[in-house]
Amino acid sequence: MQITPIKVNPWSAVGKIIGNGMRAIGKSMNKDVMDKLESVQKELKDLGEKHNKLERRMDKDDADECRTRILRFADELRRDVKHSEEFFNQILDDISHYKLYCSDHPEYKNDKAVNAIAKIEKVYQKCMDEDSFL
pTM for this one? Predict the structure, then answer.
């Protein structure tokens, strides 16, 4: 019986050792990158939440400003201050924006301008019928 000699290539063993070492270095380097990526994703999520909160606040502030202009305009009408058709159109745009915000945000108290809006719409219709804008 004869034993066949096994050919061993020492370079393949060295290659495996180097390959394993490189994979370990790669995993270590990727861990830092993955940790940084996770941190950036968390910061991006936080920033998105802050943006949404700020956007909601700005929308509410805009509705508040529309309501203020509506109330002021109605007060002027009650004091018989005349207005141009263009000014009425601007206030009617404010009323549309305000009503839309109120319908989209039922938690928002909108009963503060109901009578003012009714007054403006009534006077507007009267001015249209009589062509009596300023």
Answer: 0.66
Between CA 50 and CA 4 the distance in angstroms is 74
Cβ-based neighbours of 70, under 8 Å, separated by 6 or more: 91, 94, 95, 98, 113, 116, 117, 120
Q: Please report the sign of the dihedral spanned by the C-alpha atoms of residue 64, residue 68, residue 69, residue 74.
A: positive
Helices 114-130 and 10-78 cross at an angle (nearest 10°) of 60
For residue 49, give the H/E element and its range: helix 10-78
Containing 11, the helix (H) or strand (E) segment is helix 10-78
Phi, psi of 8 (to 5 degrees): -115, 130
Question: 1-10 burial, b if ≥16 CB within 10 A, otherwise e?
Answer: eeeeeeeeee
| pLDDT one-digit tens code per residue, 14-55 | 667 777 777 777 777 777 777 888 888 888 888 888 888 898
